[in-house]
């Protein structure tokens, strides 16, 4: 049975700028904001919309070494993007299903509220580090790094 974990954060950047790096430019931005984790991101299939398949290759000291994801939701009007892990990554660590959905809303001219929904399932016991409360920390760290990246004039 698929479970959900929800969290949110405010990011001190304009919605349009954050949406661009989360939905269109992440192939080039992710390795820049997570240089100690992400080696590169490649589009394997698709045009960046629903159905696009990406592979995140991690540095050699990160295990597992990659994570393949599929864009399952993409709505430019509501600023929502969903990424489902389809191979490697969290699926190699005891989860049978893992999806992260970001939904952005402007709260003022230079602030964005990001709602994060993590949907997950597992068939057996999972390690503490892959529980949604822990994986959400990684997601929030990524959003903070994007905030810093954009605030520094990127």
Automatic annotation (TrEMBL):
<dbReference type="InterPro" id="IPR023393">
    <property type="entry name" value="START-like_dom_sf"/>
</dbReference>
<dbReference type="InterPro" id="IPR024949">
    <property type="entry name" value="Bet_v_I_allergen"/>
</dbReference>
<dbReference type="GO" id="GO:0005737">
    <property type="term" value="C:cytoplasm"/>
</dbReference>
<dbReference type="GO" id="GO:0005634">
    <property type="term" value="C:nucleus"/>
</dbReference>
<protein>
    <recommendedName>
        <fullName>Bet v I/Major latex protein domain-containing protein</fullName>
    </recommendedName>
</protein>
<dbReference type="Pfam" id="PF00407">
    <property type="entry name" value="Bet_v_1"/>
</dbReference>
<dbReference type="GO" id="GO:0009738">
    <property type="term" value="P:abscisic acid-activated signaling pathway"/>
</dbReference>
<comment type="similarity">
    <text>Belongs to the BetVI family.</text>
</comment>
<dbReference type="GO" id="GO:0006952">
    <property type="term" value="P:defense response"/>
</dbReference>
<dbReference type="GO" id="GO:0004864">
    <property type="term" value="F:protein phosphatase inhibitor activity"/>
</dbReference>
<dbReference type="GO" id="GO:0010427">
    <property type="term" value="F:abscisic acid binding"/>
</dbReference>
<dbReference type="GO" id="GO:0038023">
    <property type="term" value="F:signaling receptor activity"/>
</dbReference>
<feature type="domain" description="Bet v I/Major latex protein">
    <location>
        <begin position="4"/>
        <end position="151"/>
    </location>
</feature>
<dbReference type="InterPro" id="IPR000916">
    <property type="entry name" value="Bet_v_I/MLP"/>
</dbReference>
<dbReference type="InterPro" id="IPR050279">
    <property type="entry name" value="Plant_def-hormone_signal"/>
</dbReference>
């Amino acid at each position: 049975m698929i479970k959900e974990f929800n969290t949110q954060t405010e990011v001190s950047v304009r919605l349009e700028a954050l949406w661009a790096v989360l939905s269109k430019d992440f192939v080039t931005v992710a390795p820049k904001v997570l240089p100690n984790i992400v080696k590169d991101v490649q589009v394997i299939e698709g045009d960046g919309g629903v159905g696009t398949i990406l592979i995140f290759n991690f540095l050699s000291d990160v295990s597992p070494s990659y994570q393949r994801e599929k864009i399952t939701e993409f709505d430019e009007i509501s600023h929502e993007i969903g990424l489902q892990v389809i191979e490697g990554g969290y699926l190699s660590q005891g989860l049978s299903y893992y999806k992260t959905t970001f939904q952005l809303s402007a709260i003022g001219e230079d602030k964005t509220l990001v709602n994060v929904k993590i949907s997950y399932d597992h068939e057996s016991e999972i390690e503490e580090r892959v529980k949604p409360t822990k994986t959400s920390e990684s997601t929030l760290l990524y959003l903070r790094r994007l905030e810093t990246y954009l605030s520094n004039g990127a």
